[in-house]
Amino acid sequence: MPCTNHPEADLVAYCAGCTKAFCANCLVVLDGKNLCGPCKAKAVRRLERGETSYSYIPAAVVRAPSPWEQEKSLGNLVKTAKAVLFSPNAFFGKLKLYGQGHWLYIALLYWPVAILETVLQWSLSLGMFSTTKEPPRPGILLASCLLVPLLPLLQCAISGSLVHLFLKMTRGAKAELETTFRIYAYAQSAYILIWIPVVGALLSGFWFMVLLTIGLKRMHQTSYSRMIPVLLLCGAMLAHRLWEVLGVVRTML
Known about the structure:
- The strands form 2 sheets. A two-stranded antiparallel ribbon has the order 1-2.
- It is built from 10 helices and 4 strands.
- It starts with 12 loop residues before the first strand and ends with a helix.
- A hairpin with a 2-residue loop joins strand 3 (28-30) and strand 4.
- Helices cover 58% and strands 4% of the residues.
- It folds into 2 domains: 13-62, no CATH class; 67-252, no CATH class.
């Protein structure tokens, strides 16, 4: 990973304040902590006010990679998914702002669920609810199952970029685009709720909105007011999910 300020320079260490990567020329050591220029200025101002020597170090200093990022295993995949779904405040509050592994995480988590969904949709299209007599095409089904891992990656890249743009517009983005990608990828853990019959799509969409909101607030250290455009975008996505569910219900009736 290159230096944040100098792309041509290699990473030496992470700033203890903002957790961004920097080269040796961009870091100073204060109270035994590596700090970049802006974080050093904040530290000096707080020390001048008489605060304790470590009060300028924010909670980001204790951030760590997710269990999945620390070791790629099925157990850690499940452990990470549980943490995201059931303890999002704690998970995003301690998740490292920058890292690797979130793209593979969401691809692996998405694949079995998406394959099941593809097979079910294909089966229903041939069943009692279908109005077409076209014979099945197993080759198309197999290709769909193999390509579905690409869908969450494309969605994360496109929608994550849009979310980050909205945050930049409201000055709510305190970290880089990579952080937003990480938030969006882990928030897509809610997709596994689609296993729930009929209402799974709507429930997963709603919980994704909750996870994304919590993740943005905790990792970008921003306010809800600065996330209004993002919340409106999520609301539109949720409305689309609701419309899809109603369509399935109408078809079954």
